[in-house]
Design brief:
15 helices, 380 residues, elongated
């Protein structure tokens, strides 16, 4: 299969979508497919080079206002049509719904190429966190229009597929998220790192990893941390990641350790050296951090939502609470902070649960879906 992936976020950017399609591009390339990734140009990417089993093509783009760590692509329909006339792909997969992604859908349709898409980010839900709540319906309409012009829209959970169907999206399919279970493992626990955190052997370390942005529900996270500390003063809190809120949060919470962005190998060591993960976000379409934490052998407390709904059985391999009950999430986290036996039992079961969710298994299913779409298009 000759596959072109069009995305406005890609490694070395650090987020769930970039990481997911970095894995997918590499693995499909290793499986013998010819993979090209079109993305906004960045100085820290090997623009136009072959890397890890795929080729990259830089496209015009600009930093997102107020969030320079990420970029959006500019419309490039003419460029893509010229490129695809000269070197016709078997299928175009559009990862993001920005100007570049939307223009790619139009270009593919004009040339009669099969085009699919992914729904990874609830942009319409983000509007209320950034002062644009009146634009929520317009954002949803844009997303629906982009995706409904593709043959299939892949979403990461069956729950989200059902929600999107109810909102008028068509042709939904499942593309779950994998976990690198060799990288994220309890075997990477580091006593030296825990010592650097000021944590003794019996001190529960609570870790949170992710983009520090308004939609991640940080007020509830820190309310939860305060309750855990009150119940068990030996708790330590480590915040991994960066984003627009990092400076404000680090000033407001000097009792927490803020690491900034760290390499994924180091991230794996941080996960494994902690004990508890609290997941409070309600805007995720999946939540890779939760499955990475489970793979690393952490006891998890989360709302019954997205990845947690898919993988956690309450009281067996983690704790989940209804999404409209923040006080219940706080209570669940306090249980983890004060009950060593519970933490140990849930952590061991969490790892066992996630082991079958390897990237190899997830990508094999996605590969089969894409090959089926290509075959059906050739017969149509």
């Amino acid at each position: 299969m000759k596959l072109t992936i069009v995305t406005e976020t890609f490694p070395p950017e650090i987020n769930g979508v970039a990481m997911t399609f970095g894995h997918i591009a590499r693995e499909l390339g290793r499986r013998g497919h010819h993979v090209t990734v079109c993305h906004p140009r960045r100085d820290d990417l090997s623009n136009g080079a072959a890397q890890g089993g795929f080729h990259t093509v830089p496209m015009p783009g600009l930093p997102i206002p107020g969030y320079p760590l990420l970029r959006f692509g500019l419309p490039a329909g003419g460029t893509l049509r010229r490129r695809w006339r000269a070197d016709r792909p078997d299928l175009v997969h559009v990862v993001t719904e920005g100007p570049l992604g939307s223009s790619a859908v139009s270009a593919a349709r004009t040339l009669g190429l099969p085009v699919t898409s992914s729904f990874h980010t609830n942009f319409h839900a983000y509007t209320k966190h950034y002062g644009f709540a009146p634009l929520q319906h317009a954002a949803l309409g844009w997303l629906r229009r982009v995706h409904n012009r593709t043959l299939r829209t892949f979403a990461p959970t069956t729950e989200l597929c059902a929600e999107l169907t109810a909102l008028g999206f068509t042709g939904l399919g499942l593309l779950s998220r994998g976990v690198d279970i060799e990288q994220f493992t309890p075997l990477k626990r580091s006593p030296a790192l825990r010592t650097a955190w000021g944590a003794a052997t019996a001190d529960p370390v609570v870790l949170h990893a992710g983009r520090m942005a308004a939609e991640k529900n940080y007020p509830l996270i820190f309310r939860t941390f305060a309750a855990m500390r009150a119940a068990n003063p030996r708790c330590r809190f480590v915040m991994v990641g960066d984003g627009p809120l990092r400076s404000k949060l680090s000033r407001a919470h000097p009792d927490c350790l803020f690491t900034g962005f760290i390499p994924r190998e180091e991230l794996a060591r941080h996960y494994a050296s902690a004990d508890i993960y609290v997941h409070a976000s309600l805007t995720e379409t999946f939540g890779n951090v939760l499955t990475e934490a489970m793979a690393s052998g952490l006891a998890v407390a989360s709302f019954d939502y997205a990845a947690a709904r898919q993988f956690i059985r309450d009281g067996e391999n983690g704790l989940v609470v209804p999404s409209d009950q923040p006080s219940a999430l706080i209570a669940a986290a306090v249980r983890l902070a004060t009950d060593t036996d519970l933490r140990t039992r849930l952590a061991g079961a969490a790892r066992v649960t996630i082991e079958p969710q390897s990237w190899a298994n997830v990508i094999a299913r996605f590969e089969a879906d894409l090959l089926g779409i290509v075959a059906a298009h050739r017969l149509s």
